[in-house]
């Protein structure tokens, strides 16, 4: 046979094999993205006293607005969240920090004005305090919203009461603050300024800063300790310890040395948020089965049963991108099209726009409520809060935005 013809035949065979392999890889190789579970994880199930039935997803297909000209989608934008393209309303002109919703309403720090603001009944910004606070780096609010710890880039900390104007300077060694339910005590990490890990502690600080009580030594594990008071004031922090590359054990730390039961999660990167009344703890982890994408789970938040039964909510996002509207309802910003391994590098989510979902923690049902679109088309959302019929969030530039829920 002619050598050229032989080469053509061989080339054709190789081409066919390559195409077959490509089709297999694209359409059959990719697996599902389960939440993963321990032996006691009810993936897609329900929690006792939270509801019965399987986790359901109600989704409305929407285009990727980042790739479409605005003229092609502007007629499809709804002023109210209805599961599709939803209008976004800009509230502030400059970047903000410390967005918080409390009994006194929505409050935040305006970086440009260097002042704190609140939203009035009309949803308009009003100055909360005439005093200027320069270069505030982080804000930790009390439950009532009447006081906050202001952290500065140089390590200085100020406890400021917005009702009385009283100001207390806290030690520079303190960081990662969390108020208890009454607002009279603070849990925080004491990090030794000289770098001696033996002097690192989880501590309890009085509201005037006069008393500091040691709770638990941290050593070199401060990065694996999430300071956050439980709503019942029994747990001051959650400490995570790796069992292996696919599992972590989570230890609740009480303020009086209580020996609370730990629980195991099937994944790495544990981070969590308590529901307002403490009935639920929502957390995310990533593992091999989820393609190392962060996946939300929920467990009962009661101290006596914490972590006994865990349910996957099948949403690839982090608790920090969620907010509770009530004890049973949560809203989450879910990045669109996260790549494999995003759980390992949470900062990668900054490059992806979000869609908004509501989650009913009673039934496990989740529903796409909005694909936000505005002057910036898609948005990367942070600091979500619900106030009245509106969902507020800060965008990728730190500007306060809002969508109408109804």
Count the domains: 1
- In total, the number of strands is 29
The assigned structural class equals mainly beta
Q: Provide the CATH topology.
A: Methylamine Dehydrogenase, Chain H
- Approximately what portion of the residues adopt beta-strand conformation? 35-45%
Share in helix: under 10%
The top level CATH class name: Mainly Beta
Shape: globular
Main sheet attributes: strand count, strand direction, barrel closure: 7 strands, antiparallel
Strand neighbour order, sheet with most strands? 6-5-4-3-29-28-27
Q: Mind telling me which CATH architecture this is? A: 7 Propeller
Structure report:
This protein is mainly β and 406 residues long. It has a single domain (34-404), classed as Methylamine Dehydrogenase, Chain H (7 Propeller). 8% of the residues lie in helices and 40% in strands. The protein contains 2 helices and 29 strands. The chain has helices at 3-29, 70-73, and strands spanning 57-58, 85-87, 89-102, 105-110, 115-119, 125-127, 138-141, 147-151, 157-161, 167-170, 174-179, 185-190, 201-206, 212-217, 225-227, 235-244, 247-254, 263-265, 268-274, 280-286, 295-300, 310-312, 322-324, 329-335, 354-360, 366-373, 382-387, 390-394, 399-404. A 7-stranded antiparallel β-sheet has the order 6-5-4-3-29-28-27, with no helix packed on it. Strands 1, 2, 23, 24, 25 and 26 form a 6-stranded mixed β-sheet that branches. A 4-stranded antiparallel β-sheet has the order 7-8-9-10, with no helix packed on it. β11 (174-179) and β12 (185-190) form a beta hairpin. The longest helix is centred in the first third of the chain and has 27 residues, at 3-29. The radius of gyration is 24 Å and the shape is globular. The model is unreliable at 3-10, 12-16 and 18-63 (pLDDT under 50).
